[in-house]
Specification:
GO biological process, one term: L-methionine salvage from methylthioadenosine
Number of helices: 12
Helix content: 25-40%
Largest sheet: 7 strands, mixed
Number of strands: 18
Structural class: alpha/beta
Catalytic activity: 5-(methylsulfanyl)-alpha-D-ribose 1-phosphate = 5-(methylsulfanyl)-D-ribulose 1-phosphate
CATH class of the largest domain: Alpha Beta
Strand order of the largest sheet: 8-7-6-9-12-17-18
Oligomer: single chain
Function: Catalyzes the interconversion of methylthioribose-1-phosphate (MTR-1-P) into methylthioribulose-1-phosphate (MTRu-1-P).
CATH architecture of the largest domain: 3-Layer(aba) Sandwich
Family: Belongs to the EIF-2B alpha/beta/delta subunits family. MtnA subfamily.
Protein name: Methylthioribose-1-phosphate isomerase
Order of helices and strands: EEEEEHHHHHEHEHEHEEEHEEHHEEEEEH
CATH topology of the largest domain: Rossmann fold
CATH superfamily of the largest domain: Translation initiation factor eif-2b, domain 2
Distance between the termini: 37 Å
Length: about 375
Amino acid sequence: MKVDGKPFRSIWDEDGAVRIIDQRWLPHDFRIARIETLDDFATAIRNMWVRGAPLIGATAAYGVARQMARDPSDAALSEACAVLNATRPTAINLAWALDRCRAAVAPLPAGDRADAALTLARRIADDDVECNRLIGVHGLNLIRRIAARKPRGEPVRLLTHCNAGWIATVDWGTATSPMYQAADAGIPLHVWVDETRPRSQGALTAWELGAHGIPHTFVTDNAGGHLMQKGLVDMVITGTDRTTARGDVCNKIGTYLKALAAGDNDVPFYVALPSSTIDWTMTDGLRDIPIEDRDPREVTHVQGALDDGTLGRVRVTPEGTPAGNPAFDVTPARLVTGLITERGLCDASAEGLAGLFPARGAA
């Protein structure tokens, strides 16, 4: 996608270095960071310089590649995979990418490992872009069907939670890819963007949509149910950080409540994901998916632009107030209308997923 008219991916390599869009400063300041060492990559993932399951996986792959350029030994490969895998527990793309790196690199002679690891990292990034483009193609068909039922010129009203946009992937995004493609096809849209506390990731979605010229409104996290009750939402679409083989989805905290409200108001609730986000080893999301607990200061403090334009952080709670910060929740498959993948649409069920990915079989 473009920033000020210039195309960007969220991660890329050039001149022997890996660069990322440093998301700590968005939407107020667009900064590019160069990451080099294994510690750089681990910090970038853990501290959310990069975030979003697909981008985390691509970043980890580049981290292994840089480590192999520095030290192609078995010990260095094992260290890289262990250090990166420990950064964040919920997004399955992290382990998926590291498993691919280990399987591709470990059998090779030391002298071949750096080039092979870099080639694989680039392929993972390129594949993510294409997967997300295809998610948009399939999601566009859903939006077209809704648009066809509406009076001419009336927008299709979507609601999304968190940021499943292009900066949470390598490009296009998951939940946003159908939005971009619908807008490019001339379909009128209006997107309700949840603020997504505590890190206000909805502000990143608003930044993206604004740059693409898509009408949107930034709303509080608890406004979604009210909007659905008033008939102001035609479809909910979110991303996911891990999807079980039976269709449970794990996404940013608050997603479950949106699914409950959607079900109560007969609003379709779709989840967009590349197949790399499916954990085929898990069947019960509530029981098995690890939920990341993050720093309570993300809840007790907020960052934003001050009146003079500088970025600042302020405390919003009484001093000493304890806070909890579970980063994700699980939406059971029964609340999900359907899954949008690079291979098409399916029911959120073992049978639905097996229909698109028969090599995996029904769980």
